[in-house]
Structure prediction request, 164 residues.
Amino acid sequence: MPELTTLDEKLGEVLGLAQAAQTAAKKVATLARKEKETEVVEVLQKMQEDAKQVEERCKEVATSRDGMKTAINMKARETKTEITDFMKTYLEDAETLDGLEFLSMSEAGELAHWEILAKLNETAKDKQIANLADASLPIQQRHVATVRQHALRLAAEEDPSEPA
Ligand SMILES: [Fe+2]
Prediction:
């Protein structure tokens, strides 16, 4: 298999993060549903759909990176596994707020990876990667902002003196 370039490796990572984001949104939506946090459930369903679209777009671009598709997909799988393993540890006996804390980390990480990919591409100047990053960056910015907003809203509703 050909060795990944730095650009292709980063593409594999954002692909894996988009896949992991779907698993995470689904898991936290389950917690939110149990606590009847309907608004959070809706927001997470939208995030899951967004992540699915980002995944598809990444896969399309990966297909066009000559001979790199398999290696990019392997990198994606590795990244996805790392995040979902961390998620399982973090979300043992979790409540919705814990779930939103996890998402605040994973979504911020996802945004950072997109910013890094876009920065690498300022040098690489690949048209497809440029379009992909342009489309994905505002989505990730929105995800980070939305997760933060709902995490803080739930925190404001908590009783800080209650046993944890
Ligand atoms: Fe995201």
